[in-house]
Write a structure and sequence with these properties.
heterodimer, A: about 110 residues, 6-stranded mixed β-sheet, about 0% helix, B: about 120 residues, mainly beta
């Protein structure tokens, strides 16, 4: 069954680089991979989006291997305010049926001083 | 502020009742998505509308229905409510019609508690 998985939680310290990986073993061919950040009781907020190789913006980098079966969100030099849940969002191919827009299981990143 | 407005922010009701959640998308966005977030299920895609028409359907129960009106606001109707329907319901909007192109802008959510 096509699905998307992420580590449940990660711990880090301020100033460190954090890499969060999402596995999506049946991603649809022509769709983007997007990452979102969510704070408690708030809606998810867009971080970064990519299709292949590497994408970088002012807050993060996204690494996507050639087979696109996984993606890695990289947060450089995290701070306490980066403590949140991080989700990948992909379109999974359900074999001819309507493709499904699927959020990953989410990774709770806890940044400590 | 994402520009997406959801009402009500909180709602408490009893089992068997019916409620309506409302979403106003960002100005200019034609797509509206509804998601359910509960503690044990994460973010579950329910349904998408684009310019008034249903575009994609996810894990939406038959007791739930949605529509998008000519002014592009959307409503999610939940009926015959059960305890398990207690969750945060998010609305998101996008300029695009396809399911995963561009950025989704999320509202602050409507927290439904069914007692």
């Amino acid at each position: 069954l096509a699905k998307t998985t992420q580590p449940i939680s990660m711990d880090s310290y301020e100033g460190q680089e954090v890499n969060i990986t999402c596995s999506h073993n049946n991603i649809a061919t022509n769709d983007y991979i997007t990452w979102y950040q969510q704070f408690p009781s708030q809606g998810p907020r867009f971080i970064i989006q990519g299709y292949k190789t590497k994408v970088t913006n002012e807050v993060a980098s996204l690494f996507i291997p050639a087979d696109r079966k996984s993606s890695t969100l990289s947060l450089p030099r995290v701070s306490l305010s980066d403590t949140a849940v991080y989700y990948c969002l992909v379109v999974l191919n359900y074999g001819g049926a309507t493709n499904k827009l699927i959020f990953g299981t989410g990774t709770l990143l806890a940044v400590q001083p | 502020d994402s520009g997406v407005t959801q009402t009500p922010k909180h709602l408490i009701t009893a089992t068997g009742q019916r409620v309506t959640l409302r979403c106003s998308p960002r100005s200019g966005d034609l797509s509206v998505y509804w998601y359910q977030q509960s503690l044990d299920q994460g973010l579950q895609f329910l349904i998408q509308y684009y310019n008034g028409e249903e575009r994609a359907k996810g894990n939406i129960l038959e007791r739930f229905s949605a529509q998008q009106f000519p002014d592009l606001h959307s409503e999610l109707n939940l009926s015959s409510l059960e305890l398990g329907d207690s969750a945060l319901y998010f609305c998101a909007s996008s300029v695009y019609s396809t399911v995963n192109t561009g950025e989704l802008f999320f509202g602050e959510g409507s927290r439904l508690t069914v007692l």
